[in-house]
Design a protein that fits this description.
The protein has five helices and no strands.
């Protein structure tokens, strides 16, 4: 029995993200820390962390640098 891993999301990744996830990604790409992002969005730091974990999972990325590159590519 073999397991296959799902391929990373490649079609319309921006539409795969909820609006608040896109907003969090935009703040991180602009150089904000998790705490600054949380304050700007009126959320807790833990909620921002959860958003960014979901973004990584949805887009199949692992690092903040990859998130920033993705945000730039998406025009966020």
């Amino acid at each position: 029995m073999s397991l296959t891993l799902a391929a990373p999301q490649t079609e319309a990744p921006a539409t795969a993200l909820a609006p608040r996830e896109q907003e969090a990604l935009r703040h991180i790409a602009a150089g904000c820390t998790y705490l600054q992002t949380a304050r700007n969005m009126g959320l807790s730091k833990h909620t921002v962390d959860a958003y960014l974990r979901r973004i990584r999972t949805k887009l199949g990325i692992n690092t903040t640098a990859e998130m920033v590159r993705t945000a730039i590519a998406l025009g966020l």
